[in-house]
Write a structure and sequence with these properties.
CATH class of the largest domain in chain B: Alpha Beta
CATH topology of chain A: ABC transporter involved in vitamin B12 uptake, BtuC
Number of strands of chain A: 4
Mean pLDDT of chain B: 88
Shape of chain A: globular
Number of helices of chain A: 13
Distance between the termini of chain B: 56 Å
Strand content of chain A: under 5%
Radius of gyration of chain A: 22 Å
Helix content of chain B: 25-40%
Order of helices and strands of chain A: HHHHHHEEEHHHHEHHH
Structural class of chain B: alpha/beta
Largest sheet of chain B: 6 strands, mixed
Number of domains of chain B: 2
Low-confidence stretches of chain B: none
CATH class of chain A: Mainly Alpha
Structural class of chain A: mainly alpha
Strand order of the largest sheet of chain B: 6-7-8-3-9-10
Oligomer: heterodimer
Helix content of chain A: over 70%
Mean pLDDT of chain A: 86
Chain lengths: 333, 499
């Protein structure tokens, strides 16, 4: 087409777009979602700041560590959610199992070997689930529930006593304690989050995850190798989850399947509260970071207020339900 | 008195005006055609009448009494009946069950004698009094099933029948039977709203015609006062010839794409096709002809497809969309919402989907370059560059479709673009843009293959037409020999079917 025909075409389209845009802005449905979000944040901040002891050093440190464990799992979960596979129920069990593999491997071959073994186990076992989901188009929820049962079954049969202890005098090469005043766990979590955001924003693989989550069939039609991308998403989810298990094992010099209990739930809460969309195709690690912070603050406040664990579950449940309600009302066409 | 009086009916969806201030009225014994382009507002009008949508403004009166259509059941009780575009029968249930399915008159057990009698009477009116009411509907032909749909309305005492493209999937014999049936109903005093793209039927059957364009009422005329070209001009809002850009000049530029013995189990049989660069090839066929499966198969999206395909002499392996895309074979689906657009993603990402890898440095995406290329693509397909960051789902259907074309326009090498119904559900202005983009792709040396169920479009845009009937090619026409009548004959009941 010659340039002379391009100009009027473009002008006409722009005029049409302007009309369209004006119409679309007339009844914007998302506004009140933003308002609700702002109110919730203000209330949460007010409650937190008026809770005695919230701004003390031990409380802040405990907040940062809590966020770090949940956060690593949540970053992994973010990739799964964005890719349109909702969530994985198996990530909590993966934390415990990775911790056990780590302790066993460290006892056998030292710290570095332990790290490699733990990352390899978490990455590959999760990638296998991703392969089933991506290649066979298996339902992601069912696969993750099956994986959950499988991991628990094997781990419980393997570790008859429930808890595995690190050999006396094991050294973790500086991965215990604090660096420059902040807990090591938090530093590791920030690295995980940065890597996660990098992958999502700046690699073809990451962008393809958004496309697949937004429309699987459209992604196939433009030639995205969907099964590879989905397998990759689960692989990275495993690699991002592994540090949570490793850091728990280092912290307690031991490992048990109890370590990751309920983490998948806190993680999905963090993902959703952050604003990643449950049906996929939209979201970011930065949002998850904010979500993890909110979930962490809620948990610390509940502990400081002296509420029992049941209450913590109840509140977390309400938060997730609330977020889902807001998301659906905001995105319905 | 008029059975139906509609005044000032308006309806918007999220800022898009689907129907604007439409008024019309209909007498008993009148058959009214509703004509208009895709997206003119025909379906919206029907859904407002049947109470499926609630109007934003305007009124609907039945027998002069203003009514608020609360839902399909309510509309039925007032004597309205709809035969929707897709058949809505339960195939495993009997004719009788289907006729009464969902009716408010039916008690829990409905083998009651008067229900059988009323069903029988309805069928008898349609000239099908000899049918066994207990036959499962799946044993009937599509045309017979269409009659069951109509009988369903008559049994419920519908006085105003609304038929939305009732003949789209029928053979010629079945169509003429339906037309006879509708004429009988007219003689008995029923009013009929007849929605069809087939202008021949409008002139055969209808008394009056209402033309809608872009959601607005354009004209209501006596059919006998109109010529076919005048009707088309009313629908398009411009002379017929203006719509389509001039076709590619010059001789056939070789055989870029060669397809031999393409087979898709039960759908496409031994199809062969030779396509040059720079020409638009239309595969014309009715629903079920397999035309839209041919394009899918060539795009690698049909797992069971087999056949020898080569581009410039190099074989192309079927069954893998990524491999086809690597060879610059791209697909544009008829189902834009589910298989084309990434609704939540930005215009920019939609334009570049599938080719991010071409814009990386050491594996890292170069967003500055992506922006630049995206802006250029948007300009080339006439989408506002200022909307690169907007979610593609917020764009109109026409703009969304242009984004899909944008994906094709800057491939590393001019490739093959396979399009199913490329202008479905798109307003007239965007249609003209799309035809121009298609011609631009031609001049760049692409092979363009499209399917369309809109014969006007086929005749208007195609350089080569291949007709298909039940999975086989019937004939191939080059520019001068393309004629609507021959295409229509080929795709409905071919005489010269290639065995």
């Amino acid at each position: 087409m010659s340039r002379s025909t391009e100009a009027p075409l473009a002008e006409r389209a722009i005029a049409a777009d302007a009309r369209e845009g004006m119409g679309a802005r007339a009844g914007e449905p998302r506004n009140y979602v933003g308002i609700v979000r702002a109110i919730v944040l203000v209330v949460l901040a007010a409650v937190a700041l008026t809770t005695p002891g919230f701004l003390s050093q031990p409380s802040i440190l405990s907040l940062l560590t809590t966020i770090s464990f949940i956060g690593c799992v949540a970053v992994g979960m973010t990739l799964i959610t964005i890719s349109g596979n909702i969530m994985s129920f198996a990530l909590g069990a993966l934390v415990g199992a990775t911790a056990m593999i780590f302790v066993l491997a460290v006892n056998w071959g030292g710290f570095a070997f332990g790290l490699i073994a733990a990352l390899a186990f978490a990455g590959l076992s999760n990638a296998l689930q991703g392969f089933l989901i991506g290649w066979l188009r298996a339902n992601p929820i069912i696969v993750s529930i099956a994986a959950l049962a499988l991991i628990y079954g094997v781990a419980e049969a393997f570790a008859a006593h429930g808890t595995i202890y690190a050999a006396a005098g094991t050294s973790y090469g500086g991965f215990k304690g604090r660096i420059a005043g902040i807990p090591v766990e938090f530093a590791v979590f920030l690295c995980v989050a940065a890597l996660g955001q990098f992958i999502l924003s700046l690699t073809t693989f990451g962008r393809n995850l958004f496309l697949i989550g937004s429309s699987f069939r459209a992604a196939e039609a433009v030639g995205v190798r969907t099964w590879r991308a989905i397998t990759g998403a689960y692989l990275w989810a495993g690699l991002f989850t592994a540090p949570a298990g490793i850091m728990l094992a280092i912290r307690y010099d031991a490992a048990s399947m109890n370590y990751g209990m309920g983490y998948e739930y806190d993680a999905i809460a963090a993902v959703l509260v952050g604003g990643t969309i449950i049906k996929g195709g939209e979201g970011s690690v930065l949002r998850t970071l904010a979500g993890a912070l909110i979930i962490g603050v809620i948990q610390v406040v509940l502990v400081l207020q002296g509420l029992r664990t049941e209450w913590q579950y109840l509140i977390a449940g309400l938060v997730v339900l609330g977020v889902i309600a807001l998301q659906t009302s905001g995105t319905r066409d | 008195m008029d059975i139906l009086t509609v005044e000032g009916l308006s309806k918007s969806f999220g800022g898009v005006r689907a129907l604007r201030d439409v008024s019309l009225s209909l007498r008993a014994g009148e058959i009214r055609a509703i004509c208009g382009e895709n997206g003119a507002g025909k379906s919206t009008l029907v859904k407002l009448l049947m109470g499926i949508f609630t109007p934003d403004a305007g009124s609907i009166a039945i027998d002069g009494v203003r009514q608020t259509m609360r839902g399909p059941q309510y509309a039925q009780a007032l004597g309205l009946g709809l035969v929707a575009q897709e058949l809505s029968l339960a195939p495993r249930l009997s004719v009788l069950d289907n006729i009464w399915l969902g009716s408010a008159d039916v008690p829990v057990f409905h083998r009651r004698r008067d229900l059988r009698r009323r069903a029988h009477n309805a069928l008898e009116t349609l000239g099908a009094g000899d049918w066994d009411l207990d036959t499962p509907v799946s044993a009937l032909s599509i045309g017979q099933q269409q009659l069951v749909e109509i009988a369903r309305l008559l049994a419920r005492n519908a006085r105003l029948l609304i038929l939305d493209e009732p003949t789209a999937t029928l053979t010629d014999n079945e169509i003429s039977r339906i037309i006879d049936v509708l004429k009988t109903l007219k003689a008995r005093g029923h009013a009929i709203l007849y929605i069809s793209h087939r202008l021949g039927e409008v002139f055969d059957l209808c008394d009056t015609v209402t033309v809608l364009r872009n959601g607005e009422h354009v004209a209501t005329r006596q059919v006998r006062d109109l010529t076919r070209d005048q009707l088309i001009e009313l629908m398009l809002g411009r002379p017929f010839g203006d719509m389509y850009p001039a076709s590619a000049a010059g001789p056939d530029a070789g055989q870029a794409l060669v397809v031999e013995t393409l087979n898709v189990d039960g759908i496409v049989q031994d199809l062969s096709l030779v396509a040059p660069r720079g020409k638009i090839i239309c595969i014309a066929g009715q629903i079920g002809s397999g035309a839209n499966v041919v394009t899918r198969a060539l795009a690698g999206l049909v797992p069971g497809a087999s056949g020898r395909v080569s581009i410039d002499g190099k074989p192309l392996q079927l069954g893998s969309a990524p491999r086809c895309v690597e060879r610059n074979v791209l697909f544009l689906s008829e189902d834009r919402a589910a298989e084309g657009i990434f609704h939540q993603r930005s215009v920019l990402e939609n334009l570049l989907a599938g080719s991010f890898n071409a814009h990386t440095r050491f594996g890292i995406l170069d967003w500055l370059q992506l922006r630049r290329v995206g802006a250029r693509l948007a300009q080339r397909v006439a989408v506002d560059q200022r909307r690169l960051g907007a979610a593609a789902g917020k764009l109109s259907g026409g703009n969304q479709q242009k984004l899909l074309f944008g994906r094709a326009i800057e491939r590393p090498q001019p490739g093959v673009l396979l399009m199913n119904e490329p202008t479905r559900g798109i307003d007239v202005g965007a249609r003209a843009d799309i035809y121009r983009i298609m011609r631009e792709l031609c001049s760049l040396g692409y092979v363009l293959i499209m399917t369309s169920s809109d014969l006007e479009e086929v005749v208007g845009i195609a350089d080569i037409v291949v007709t298909m009937y039940r999975g086989r090619t019937v004939a191939r026409y080059e520019r001068q020999s393309i004629a609507m009548a021959r295409i229509l004959a080929d795709i409905t009941h071919p005489v010269r079917a290639a065995a």
